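Table 4 source record.
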Amino acid sequence: MPIINDSSHISGKRKFIFEISQKALDLNVDGLMIESHINPEKAMSDPKQQLKPFELEILLKKLKIRKSFEENEIFKNEMEKNRKKIDFVDAQLLDLLMQRMEIVKEIGFYKKKNKLTILQLKRWIKIIKTRTENAKKLGMSENFVKKILELIHKESILYQEKIMKN
């Protein structure tokens, strides 16, 4: 099914249409829908998100249309080599996450035995602080690492909730 990006409606304002259109093309959409009117201010609807025809022409010329694949065998081989590396690292990540969840289970049994709450807020705050600081030192996005940690923490709580119920 073709995916068409409606840059005009997404942006709501002409000044964002180029950025949204370029992002859509970079994400490999099949087409763009951009509103144009000879006199946007007098348009019957959506005047703030329409471009004049000459502005549309300029915008279209500025857009960079990239290929979604490459026929060059050397390029394809390099991509495949790097994708195999990613696959290997992903397998390691999953193994490490499973090891972490096993430790979470052990902690859950300890908390149950000693009648402790599942959420240990001071520990959670320390984890977020130290891990995001480490991410920053490594040149990673702190926000990205925080989101991953939040997902891991949520799953850890679910693991421990199951333990507490039994």
